[in-house]
Amino acid sequence: MTTLPAAIRTVRWMVRDTFRQAAASRLLWAMLGLTGLAVAFCLGVSVRGDESRAKHPDELPLYVPKAQADDKVRDEGIAVPAGEVSLGFGLARFEVTKSRADSVRLIQVWLAGVLADTAGVLLALLWTAGFLPTFLDPQAATVLLAKPTPRGAVLGGKYLGVVGFVGLQAVLFVAGTWTALGLSTGVWDGAYWLAAPLLVIHFAVFYAVSSFLAVCTRSTVVSVFGTLLFWLLCWVTNLLHHKLGGMEAAGFAPAAGVLVDVGYWVLPKPLDLGGLFFDALGAGDHAAAVPEVEAAKARGDFHPELAVVTSVLFAAGLLALAAYEFRTQDY
Q1: Strand, coil or helix: what is 68?
Q2: N or C: which end of the chain has fewer CB within 10 A?
């Protein structure tokens, strides 16, 4: 009979072993290198002009680009941003969008919302997909499983180890880029820190899929391509749900709309997770949002909290299935 202390010791050992495996495979240094490049980029960002000023009581909450502004625009009380954003230590320059803070938020949206939350999560899934299949190979696993070790704790510890490793990298990325942007621009936006937990949730949900495929097939190739294809399926389902909005659309049968709705509530929602960070950063005023998501918000059909909860529940259910399959396998 498995005791709780034995399970805790197994999980702790598996988490430690996962970090050792990441360092041995040089994945740790590769991810730290990418974070270092992002920090160096942020240190090369600067904003000149657009100093804080008192607003006139009758000033309209509108902005017109400096190139399109004239005396009439200024007389009507419409704000005209004045300033310049420099990237790459002066290699590229463009005008301030609305204000110094808005220009920095735009860079943060691209860093965390696009580079890290989409490309970064997919790369992390690709790079860590081989951890479990390698470990579950009979020649490697039988040495550990020959002892009275709880298999559920082994799988859970390995899963938590990978998620913890990626979570550490996410915190280092957010902390490094936030600090670098603050030092170089003078803008310290605390909302940017929300990117770290959202990145971890996004990765953890889809790494559960990778873990399930690894247990069932013990194949790195299947884990990689299966997880990426599943992520794409979830993203498309998420988009279609917001696009259809519960209404019939040209080229879609009524049954297809029901199927999309069911898939939306059952499957993870990567598009909504990204939209949650987009809203938290207040990026809607200075960066192009996904039109379908904006339409869902206008209809009152965008529920980011439910998106997080249902995505996590899906991952938990899939991990439970993976643990059951692992316990019933012969080695």
Answers
A1: helix
A2: N
Which H/E stretch holds residue 153? Answer: helix 151-185
Which helix or strand (DSSP H or E) is residue 87 part of? strand 83-87
Eight-class DSSP state of 267: S
pLDDT digits (tens, 9 = 90+) for 251-269: 556 677 788 889 999 999 9
What are the extents of the domains in the chain?
A: 4-45+98-328
Largest CA distance in the chain: 82
Q: Which residues are registered as beta bridge partners of 48? A: 84
pLDDT 10s digits, 126-140: 888 888 888 777 665
Which among 131, 120, 151 is positioned nearest to 220, based on CA atoms? 131
Hey, which residues does 309 pair with through a beta bridge? none
Amino acid present at 86:
S
List of residues 6+ apart from 259 with CB closer than 8 A: none
> What's the CA gap between 203 and 50, in Å, rounded?
38
Structure-block tokens of residue 23: 């360092």
- Residue whose pair of structure tokens reads 């670098």 in the numeric block: 180
Nearest to 194 by CA among 259, 273, 291: 273
Which three-class secondary structure string do you get for 62-83? Answer: EECCHHHCCHHHHHCCEECCCE
Alpha-carbon span 177 to 181, nearest angstrom: 6
Task: Give the whole-angstrom CA distance, residue 291 versus residue 289.
Answer: 6
Q: In 10 A of CB 154, how many CB atoms?
A: 23
Smallest Cα–Cα separation from 171: which of 191, 199, 190?
A: 199
Q: Which two tokens stand for residue 252?
A: 């879609």
